[in-house]
């Protein structure tokens, strides 16, 4: 198992190198650079050119890439030209917020999605199942940001029970109980916006998994052994139906880390998604590159996580 | 009545197709004595497996009527809880396809111990060793290791032995074997049949052996019931059936076996297929469309099973004048059978 994980991580490395080259190359194809947005008619063109040379922005992309990689191995991820701060500092602030948001969302997705899927599959074609299935169709058809806006309007504006922006109330001592409670309070609306829409896939997968497993020969054999209904569902049907969900866990979690851009925007939540959009539009490539690399790394990590979880729940996948 | 281990009378199992119920098992009566092997023979879709599943009450969405007496009690009157006690206990089942019959996520020993626990066989502390014993009993080498294995680590033959071990775990009085060798390759088939025979002798249980393989029937059965389109068309002791088959379907089946006498000639094939459940003509002889050269007058309107010799029953009167169609060329029969199928709409049955 450990060997398998190590091997997987080792394969990750060339994938990351490839990804970074690709990202750098594509970035160089885009018109403009970090300085083009700052051009002030009062600054002489020679001065800007000198600045470009100093920053190495006039070098071909592969030279820039080399410089970038060399610096990175020395622990220097560069400065954000737009924020005038080290890239890692800029990202670091936002990263934690996004991680909390994703974890909270995933938790709610499984907390609500798993029971809904299992119930819907077990009581197929019942009134309850129709209601749940109807909800999933509605969820599939609703864009997350629209749903987020609706929740924001109802609970944030109309009833005013939850804050409508930010990740924490101003003026609180970090680490204090009030600070943590305020953080959670700010998380509730965005994470429910993500989860209530995000869980529909899980529900439908699980529903069809349960329905499929019910018809399997081994379920028939279990019934022929005299296994009672409850045990039949828990031990034979649900366990088999949940495998695809478990396999998706890694992707789900990582997908949320990179995919909550719209919700972060709706709730003005200072996360990585918002930062990413901003860095692209300002041509702040030193931030964008690190972010893309980070997302790439997360995706590969998510695949690894999925593989590991899958090998735990399904003995057929277990690697010796 | 006491002399029979199992006595099913007028067992009828209907499935719902497009809102209407159609009987897949139609008025089937079978009797099995202790220590007797009754073979239930027929081609795919004739209702053999549906009969077996009905006996154990395993159908979820079917309507089952009639009576099934087992040890003096009508199983069809039992509720789910009472049936769970009998299923896997006094009546156990061997499944057709060992590749799919075991839960892929459970260790072999847990799948065996599950049935031991449900039926309270052995003390908790003894179950581990009894599991190994069972695996050894069904001829699995190194049973200690296999007990710890998952199904995917075993071959088809080994898995079928595990399925059999599960079936005999609680020393059942009736063993239902649903095509136990169909999914196995030929060399393994003989071994598995020997094993079932041996275990049956050992346990003294009655066996309902479902198969479409007449070779298996000849080797294993004491009596044979031939099923066609949901009905039993002929019942006879095994020797009698092979030496003196009466019903046109039985005779066609036997004639479809390759034999030495017919060496060099074309293999006999019964034209057409079993009619679809919801497109079947329920009046008259159900085999009539597949033997179109027999005139309608020779069939009964409502064919009944009649005893023609002690222990030998045949349905419909058409057997009296039946001759195998050897003169007529196959093309003509095929055409008539095809025309008939077109009328039926060729709906497949589940």
Automatic annotation (TrEMBL), chain A:
Organism annotation: Lacicoccus alkaliphilus DSM 16010
Protein name in the entry: Peptide/nickel transport system permease protein
InterPro entries membership: BPD_transp_1_N, MetI-like, MetI-like_sf
Highest taxon, organism lineage: Bacteria
ABC transmembrane type-1 domain location: 95-306
Family matches, as PANTHER family: DIPEPTIDE TRANSPORT SYSTEM PERMEASE PROTEIN DPPB-RELATED (PTHR43163)
Family: Belongs to the binding-protein-dependent transport system permease family.
Sequence intervals crossing the membrane: 9-30, 99-120, 132-155, 187-206, 241-267, 287-313
Keywords: Cell membrane, Membrane, Transmembrane, Transmembrane helix, Transport
Membrane topology (UniProt): Multi-pass membrane protein
Localisation: Cell membrane
GO CC annotation: plasma membrane
Pfam families associated with the record: BPD_transp_1 (PF00528), BPD_transp_1_N (PF19300)
An individual GO BP term: transmembrane transport
UniProt keyword Transferase present: no
UniProtKB/TrEMBL annotation, chain B:
PROSITE patterns listed in its UniProt record: ABC_TRANSPORTER_1, ABC_TRANSPORTER_2
Gene Ontology MF: a single term: ATP hydrolysis activity
Entry's localization field: Cell membrane
GO BP annotation list: peptide transport
CDD domains, A to Z: ABC_NikE_OppD_transporters
Highest taxon of the lineage: Bacteria
Domain annotation ABC transporter: ranges: 6-254
Record-given protein name: Peptide/nickel transport system ATP-binding protein
Organism: Lacicoccus alkaliphilus DSM 16010
Upper lineage: Bacteria, Bacillati, Bacillota, Bacilli, Bacillales
């Amino acid at each position: 198992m450990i060997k398998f994980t190590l091997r997987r991580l080792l394969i990750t490395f060339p994938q990351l190198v490839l990804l970074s080259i690709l990202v750098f190359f594509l970035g160089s194809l885009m018109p403009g650079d970090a300085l083009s947005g700052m051009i002030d008619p009062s600054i002489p063109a020679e001065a800007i050119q000198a600045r470009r040379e100093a920053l190495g922005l006039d070098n071909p992309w592969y030279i820039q890439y080399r410089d970038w990689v060399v610096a990175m191995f020395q622990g220097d991820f560069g400065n954000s030209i737009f924020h005038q701060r080290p890239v890692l500092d800029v990202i670091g602030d936002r990263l934690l917020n996004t991680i909390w948001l994703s974890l909270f969302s995933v938790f709610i997705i499984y907390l609500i999605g798993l029971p809904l899927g299992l119930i819907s599959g077990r009581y197929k074609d019942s009134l309850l199942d129709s209601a749940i299935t109807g909800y999933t169709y509605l969820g599939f058809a609703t864009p997350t940001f629209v749903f987020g806006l609706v929740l924001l309007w109802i609970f944030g504006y109309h009833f005013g029970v939850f804050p409508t922006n930010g990740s924490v109330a101003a003026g609180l001592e970090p680490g204090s109980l009030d600070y943590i409670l305020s953080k959670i309070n700010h998380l509730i609306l965005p994470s429910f916006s993500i989860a209530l829409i995000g869980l529909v896939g899980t529900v439908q997968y699980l529903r069809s998994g349960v329905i499929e497993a019910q018809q399997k020969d081994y379920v028939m054999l279990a019934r022929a052994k005299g296994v009672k209904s409850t045990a039949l569902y828990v031990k034979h049907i649900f366990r088999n139906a949940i495998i695809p969900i478990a396999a998706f866990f890694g992707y789900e979690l990582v997908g949320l880390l990179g995919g909550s851009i719209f919700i972060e925007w709706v709730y003005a939540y200072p996360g990585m998604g918002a930062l990413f959009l901003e860095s692209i539009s300002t041509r702040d490539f030193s931030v964008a590159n690190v972010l893309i690399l980070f997302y790439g790394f997360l995706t590969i990590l998510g695949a690894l996580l999925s593989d590991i979880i899958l090998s735990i729940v399904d003995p057929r996948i277990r690697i010796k | 009545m006491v002399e029979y281990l199992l006595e099913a009378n007028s067992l009828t199992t209907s499935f719902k197709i497009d809102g209407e119920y159609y009987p897949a098992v139609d008025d089937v009566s079978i009797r099995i004595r202790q220590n007797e092997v009754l073979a239930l023979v027929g081609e795919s879709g004739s209702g053999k497996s549906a009969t077996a599943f009905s006996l154990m009450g395993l159908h979820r969405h079917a309507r089952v009527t009639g009576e099934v007496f087992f040890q003096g009690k009508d199983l069809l009157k039992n509720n789910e809880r009472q049936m769970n006690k009998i299923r896997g206990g006094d009546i156990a089942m061997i499944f057709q396809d060992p590749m799919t019959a075991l839960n892929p996520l459970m260790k072999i020993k847990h799948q065996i111990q599950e049935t031991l626990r449900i039926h309270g066989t052995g003390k908790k502390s003894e179950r581990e060793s009894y599991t190994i014993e069972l695996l050894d009993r069904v001829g699995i080498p190194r049973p200690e290791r296999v007990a710890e294995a998952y199904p995917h680590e075993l071959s088809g033959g080994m898995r079928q032995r595990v399925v059999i071990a599960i079936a005999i775990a609680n020393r059942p009085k009736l063993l239902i074997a649903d095509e136990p060798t169909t999914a196995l390759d030929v060399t393994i088939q003989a071994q598995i049949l020997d094993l079932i025979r041996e275990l049956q002798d050992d346990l003294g249980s009655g066996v309902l052996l479902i198969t479409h393989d007449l070779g298996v029937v000849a080797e294993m059965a004491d009596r044979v019931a031939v099923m066609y389109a949901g009905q039993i068309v002929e019942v006879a002791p095994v020797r009698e059936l092979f030496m003196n088959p009466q019903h046109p379907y039985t005779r066609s089946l036997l004639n479809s076996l390759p034999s030495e006498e017919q060496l060099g000639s074309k293999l006999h094939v019964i034209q057409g297929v079993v009619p679809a459940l919801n497109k079947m003509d329920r009046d008259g002889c159900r085999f009539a469309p597949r033997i179109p050269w027999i005139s309608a007058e020779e069939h009964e309107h409502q064919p009944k099973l009649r005893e023609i010799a002690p222990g030998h029953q045949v349905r419909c009167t058409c057997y009296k004048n039946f001759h195998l169609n050897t003169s007529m060329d196959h093309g003509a029969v095929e055409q008539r059978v095809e025309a008939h199928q077109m009328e039926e709409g060729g709906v497949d049955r589940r």
